[in-house]
């Protein structure tokens, strides 16, 4: 393996990156970015790595969400507060229902770039123009599509303002009451509305700890000259200090190209998007190059197959990774493999049911393999404007498009459904003596007689695997049956 440096990617083939016509201006901008203070701290990146390692072992659930691409115009307090609140509340829902702690990653404060399937597009009246590659590169207005390096600095200022606001919000404590009020009104049409209401009520009485409001940031590191400028030496390591987690997109993961070279050398936890075109051998090689020290929590594999494809693809991908011996944490992005063009406005969007279908397909596959699939990236569209409505698709969810109800309603729905699927479908035994390969309960007749003597002539044994007094029943089957529409009950032995 050749030696690595923050700029060693430069000599390799590059994909999806903007080239700057004015090289002198680009150099000036990048020199300025190299001097500006880092946006996150190395220790925070290490902390996220620890949480991802726990998720990889099935001890934690990771929730990641945010905009597909942030716009500079979206950097305003109310909107940012809504997004953070939504992700934190999804974490609270998942924790409440799954019984596992969560790690929350916000795709925010740096997601200003967009990979494009085509570099140009044809616009009526203007002919063929450059595609919009995100506010970091060019403007959304068709007349503003020239690639402009000064936008990289604008991206930095917007990231800094966003992080400053979100960190202040999380640290202030003012959010305390608001976070515990989970809006479920928009889910009234669901048959499970009663159970959602009960869960929301139970969550409202929980206390908010510093871990409840802990969050991390992420973005796709696509424009590598920008990422290099924000990469800093920390002891003998190099960290990309523009975000806690950066990921490689499905279009830039070629083994012999620039992005893999850059990512293999940074010390952050890193993500890789895994789409349907990923070959098993390719994935095996990729994880080996990106995590040569076999470090837990280093590598997050984010699947984005599209609804209907996970069952066919994920088992072989899991086997390929296992064969490499590299520990990874799996996450499901139910959004990006399900793009469709809306007939009404020709905008790219997703059907909400497709998103949920993909997530639900991934859960049992991961569960059977004991490689827990730990997350979702469920909301990649703006959460507070009308375009969110297109996400709802065929699902009967009534929302007010101008209120928090859109984001919180959809986020809550995803949180509830995913958590319930996790607690329902994956494991018969979710928690009892998990260190053992097999839990065998041996009770002698003498024990049973003794129990009957002390328990009104009955020994009542748990068959739902949820009792805190296992092997005896403590009534937990009632709650489990209600949540999961099951009908388990105890084995009762009468003396
Ligand atoms: S608690 Fe498991 S059957 Fe009652």
UniProtKB/TrEMBL annotation:
SMART domains from the UniProt entry? ZnF_CDGSH
Its UniProt entry gives the catalysed reaction(s) as: D-erythrose 4-phosphate + phosphoenolpyruvate + H2O = 7-phospho-2-dehydro-3-deoxy-D-arabino-heptonate + phosphate
Highest taxon of source: Eukaryota
Which GO terms of the molecular function aspect are on file?
2 iron, 2 sulfur cluster binding; 3-deoxy-7-phosphoheptulonate synthase activity; metal ion binding
Q: What is its EC number?
A: 2.5.1.54
Class of enzymatic activity (EC top level): transferase
Q: Which residues bind phosphoenolpyruvate?
A: 107, 273, 304
InterPro entries for the chain: Aldolase_TIM, DAHP_synth_2, FeS-contain_CDGSH-typ, MitoNEET_CISD
Q: Which residues form the Iron-binding zinc finger CDGSH type domain?
A: 438-483
Write out the pathway annotation from the protein's UniProt entry.
Metabolic intermediate biosynthesis; chorismate biosynthesis; chorismate from D-erythrose 4-phosphate and phosphoenolpyruvate: step 1/7
UniProt cofactor(s): Mn(2+); Co(2+); Cd(2+); [2Fe-2S] cluster
Q: Name one Pfam family in it.
A: DAHP_synth_2
Q: Which UniProt keywords apply?
A: 2Fe-2S, Amino-acid biosynthesis, Aromatic amino acid biosynthesis, Cadmium, Cobalt, Iron, Iron-sulfur, Manganese, Metal-binding, Transferase
Which residues are Mn(2+)-binding?
68, 336
How is the cofactor bound here? Binds 1 divalent cation per subunit. The enzyme is active with manganese, cobalt or cadmium ions.
What protein family does this chain belong to?
A: Belongs to the class-II DAHP synthase family.
Please give the name of this protein: Phospho-2-dehydro-3-deoxyheptonate aldolase
Source species: Cladocopium goreaui
């Amino acid at each position: 393996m050749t030696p690595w440096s923050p700029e060693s990617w430069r000599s390799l083939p590059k994909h999806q990156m903007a080239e700057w016509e004015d090289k002198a201006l680009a150099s000036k901008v990048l020199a300025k970015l190299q001097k500006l203070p880092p946006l996150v701290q190395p220790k925070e990146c290490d902390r996220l790595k620890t949480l991802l390692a726990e998720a990889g072992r099935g001890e934690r659930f990771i929730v990641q969400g945010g905009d597909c691409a942030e716009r500079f115009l979206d950097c305003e307090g109310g909107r940012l507060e809504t997004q953070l609140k939504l992700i934190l509340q999804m974490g609270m829902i998942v924790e409440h229902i799954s019984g596992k702690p969560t790690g929350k990653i916000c795709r925010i404060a740096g997601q200003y770039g967009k990979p494009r399937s085509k570099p140009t597009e044809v616009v009526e009246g203007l002919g063929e123009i450059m595609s919009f590659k995100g506010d970091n590169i060019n403007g959304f207005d068709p007349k503003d599509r020239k690639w402009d390096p000064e936008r990289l600095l604008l991206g930095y200022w917007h990231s800094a303002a966003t992080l400053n606001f979100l960190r202040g919000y999380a640290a202030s404590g003012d959010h305390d009451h608001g976070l515990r009020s989970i809006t479920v009104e928009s889910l009234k049409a669901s048959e499970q509305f009663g159970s959602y209401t009960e869960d929301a009520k139970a969550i409202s009485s929980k206390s908010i700890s510093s871990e409840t409001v802990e969050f991390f940031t992420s973005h796709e590191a696509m424009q590598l000259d920008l990422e290099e400028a924000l990469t800093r030496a920390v002891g003998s390591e190099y960290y990309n200090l523009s975000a806690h987690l950066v990921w490689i997109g499905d279009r830039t993961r070629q083994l012999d190209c620039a992005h893999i070279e850059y990512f293999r050398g940074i010390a952050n936890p890193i993500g890789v998007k895994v789409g349907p075109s990923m070959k098993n051998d390719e994935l095996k090689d990729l994880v080996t190059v990106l995590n040569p020290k076999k470090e837990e929590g280093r590598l997050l594999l984010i699947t984005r197959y599209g609804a209907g494809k996970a069952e066919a693809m994920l088992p072989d991908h899991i086997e390929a990774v296992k064969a490499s011996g590299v520990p990874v944490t799996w996450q499901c992005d139910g959004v990006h493999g399900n793009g469709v063009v809306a007939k009404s406005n020709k905008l790219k969007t997703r059907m909400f049911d497709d998103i949920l279908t993909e997530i639900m397909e991934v859960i049992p596959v991961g569960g059977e393999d004991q490689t827990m699939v730990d997350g979702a990236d469920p909301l990649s569209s703006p959460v507070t404007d009308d375009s969110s409505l297109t996400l709802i698709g065929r699902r009967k969810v009534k929302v007010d498009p101008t209120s928090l109800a859109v984001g919180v309603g959809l986020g809550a729905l995803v949180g509830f459904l995913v958590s319930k699927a996790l607690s329902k479908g994956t494991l018969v035994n979710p928690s009892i003596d998990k260190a053992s390969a097999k839990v065998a309960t041996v009770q002698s007749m003498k024990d049973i007689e003794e129990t009957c003597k002390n328990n009104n002539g009955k020994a009542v044994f748990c068959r739902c695997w949820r009792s805190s007094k296992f092997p005896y029943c403590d009534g937990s089957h009632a709650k489990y049956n209600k949540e999961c529409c099951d009908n388990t009950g105890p084995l009762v032995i009468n003396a």
